[in-house]
Design a protein that fits this description.
It is built from ten helices and ten strands. The mean pLDDT is 96.
């Protein structure tokens, strides 16, 4: 059953809303961890937030609450709980593949956040035509793959932060290392390259091993650590755009003094979007060990 979003979000504050998306997999529910500030109206911006590997959408929502209160943002963090989405292939890689079989595109996990946004529109919670999308760590993987495989009509802006590795913008390499073999077309690839994606990369996110850093050969080929892999992704986009004689409108924003810190990177993203400035590590409250 689709929840009554208008009722669930009728009052200011936090909310945890169960969400079942039968087009994806009725056995895999998600939870929408939301926050409505006092100043929210249906014309206020909506921010979709994708958590990291810890499946901690409630914490990621909370990272954004100060910005939500300042700017009147509705926060929605679709949370892919580990019980139902336990592995990288379920969340990071979007449940695109089932063994060697490619699942129907509407059933991919990447379709869920935009369907949630459409439901918010249908319920009258928002009158906005487009939402902002932010993802960090595993959520950065999710966000850039969502952008790579879904329509862009409902996306105001996208930031992928500190992703562990990337699906390179090529149809010559099979997913998830590339975008080949899953039905992505030349026209969709050109639109991906043209989209003004922001790749957010902490310059201290340079660990070269650890349980959260993807270590398969395809990931290692992109660089020894996340900061290097972000640069590799941008260069791959620029090279593919040149090869196809089209534009690459991506930009990489290095963030000085910040490592793999989801809270700090959330604050950086909020300031980029809603204050048009790059804040310092000190302003972002960067920690030695941040949230995944």
């Amino acid at each position: 059953m689709t929840p009554d979003l208008a009722t669930a979000l009728s009052a200011p504050g936090r909310a945890a809303i169960p969400w079942l998306d039968p087009a994806c997999d009725p056995e895999r529910p998600v939870t929408l961890h939301c926050y409505r500030p006092e100043g929210f109206t249906p014309d206020s911006p909506v921010v979709l937030i994708q958590h990291g590997m810890l499946r901690n959408g409630d914490e990621y929502r909370d990272f954004w609450i100060p910005a939500a209160d300042r700017h009147g943002l509705l926060l929605v963090a679709p949370t892919f709980v580990a019980l139902h989405w336990p592995q990288a292939e379920h969340y990071n890689n979007g449940l695109v593949l089932e063994g060697d079989r490619v699942r129907p595109r509407d059933s991919w996990a990447y379709a869920i956040p935009l369907r949630v946004f459409a439901a918010l529109q249908a319920a009258g919670v928002t009158r906005r035509a487009r939402a902002y999308l932010f993802g960090h760590s595993a959520g950065g993987q999710f966000a850039h793959r969502l952008l790579s495989t879904q329509k862009h009509d409902a996306l105001e802006a996208v930031i992928a932060g500190n992703a562990g590795w990337y699906s390179l913008p090529t149809l010559d390499t099979r997913f998830p290392a590339g975008l080949g073999g899953i039905g992505v077309t030349h026209q969709e690839l050109v639109k991906l390259l043209a989209y003004p994606l922001t790749i957010l990369a902490g310059d201290q996110d340079t660990e070269t091993q650890g349980p959260s850093l993807p270590s398969q050969p395809e990931a290692i080929a992109q660089g020894p650590h996340r900061f290097a892999r972000a640069h590799h992704y941008l260069k791959a986009g620029q090279a593919e755009a040149a090869r196809r004689n089209t534009a690459c409108n991506w930009r990489l924003v290095p963030v000085a003094g910040i490592g793999h810190d989801g809270a700090a990177m959330s604050r950086v993203a909020a300031a980029l979007w809603f204050e048009n400035r790059l804040i310092t590590a000190e302003e972002a409250g960067a920690q030695t060990a941040g949230a995944l």
